[in-house]
Design brief:
6 helices, 7 strands, 276 residues, binds flavin-adenine dinucleotide, Butyryl-Coa Dehydrogenase, subunit A, domain 1, alpha+beta, 4-stranded mixed β-sheet
């Protein structure tokens, strides 16, 4: 088995490293201290083709393979875990979810905007009383004409303060537990979509946005899931996009540890080699 990187993967790694060192790292400390995400980097990542790495070019993506995408996440994560976290959610949890489960109309509407950074995406699954056990979520979706009216609270939603589009999970039938849960695409200017700062202070990557979404009544017109014989079931959607999400979280570890060791080495050793 050949574990050598291809020329294209090496190119992505070098470009991501240059961006991370020259544009992300210099603002990371201040962003962390202020607890403010450096939003100016979003458009830059769009210009560089990072925001839709694994998305196909026909939807504005760069068509990277997953090794290339993992290298990109590693390089960003080495400079700032908040920026890597932004990308993980925006690309892995939102764009890939829409690509894999959205209708053609939804893909054409959202993917190019997410790829350029014109729009930011968030993924709203977790609730104050429903984390690992997502099936116990309280958010409900009530069908009304051609729409669903959602009501529920979400918390820890990365990118949630700035997002233009949210994939919101809610149950159409709480007695059905996980089988009743559906994923809805909600544009965040929908009346009733509320966001407030999350109480408390985080221990790590504080620049990431994690607002609290109190109970609201946004109206969702369309569902992210494909219509199937079972209806708009989202239990297929939920683990699907979380798999690349998990892969990128793995990159957080493989990026942070050498990044920390290198910073320590750099700070304590008079002559240090370039990071490899
Ligand atoms: C930095 C950050 C970003 C996040 N971003 C998002 C986001 O963008 N969107 C979103 O929806 N959510 C997000 N979350 C929320 C995250 O997905 C939840 O924190 C996660 O699902 C765990 O839920 P919880 O925190 O309520 O912990 P709990 O579910 O209460 O779990 C607490 C502990 O108990 C363990 N545990 C739970 N159940 C069992 C069991 N049955 N058996 C054994 N052990 C168990 C867990 O492994 C864990 O160690 C984010 C969280 C963090 C920290």
């Amino acid at each position: 088995m050949n574990f050598e990187l291809t020329d294209e993967q090496k190119r992505i790694q070098a470009q991501a490293r240059q961006f991370a060192e020259q544009e992300v790292a210099p603002v990371a400390r201040e962003a962390d201290e202020k607890g403010q995400f450096p939003l100016h980097l979003v458009k830059r990542m769009g210009e560089l083709g990072f925001l839709a790495g694994p998305i196909e070019p026909e939807y504005g993506g760069s068509g990277m393979d997953y090794v290339g995408y993992a290298l990109l996440c590693e390089e960003l994560g080495r400079a700032d875990s908040s920026v890597r976290g932004f990308l993980t959610v925006h690309t892995s949890l939102v764009s890939l979810c829409i690509r894999d489960w959205g209708t053609e109309e939804q893909k054409r509407r959202y993917l190019p905007r997410l790829a350029s950074g014109e729009w930011i995406g968030c993924y709203a699954l977790t609730e104050p009383d429903a984390g690992s056990d997502a099936a116990s979520m309280q958010a409900i979706a009530r069908e009304e004409g051609d729409s669903y009216v959602l009501n529920g609270e979400k918390i820890w939603i990365t990118n949630g303060a700035s997002a233009h589009i949210a994939i919101v999970f809610a149950s159409r039938d709480r007695s059905a537990r996980h089988k009743g849960i559906c994923a809805f695409l909600v544009e965040t200017d929908t009346p009733g979509f509320l966001r407030e700062p999350m109480p408390g202070k985080e221990l790590g990557h504080r620049a990431a946005e994690h607002p609290y979404h109190p109970g609201g009544m946004p109206r969702a017109k369309k569902c992210a899931a494909r219509r199937s014989r079972r209806g708009l079931q989202s239990r297929h959607v939920c683990p699907g996009p979380r798999s690349p999400g998990r892969c990128c979280r793995g990159c957080r570890c493989s990026a942070s540890v050498p990044g920390c060791l290198y910073s320590f080495y750099k700070a304590t050793t008079p002559v240090w080699p370039a990071y490899r």
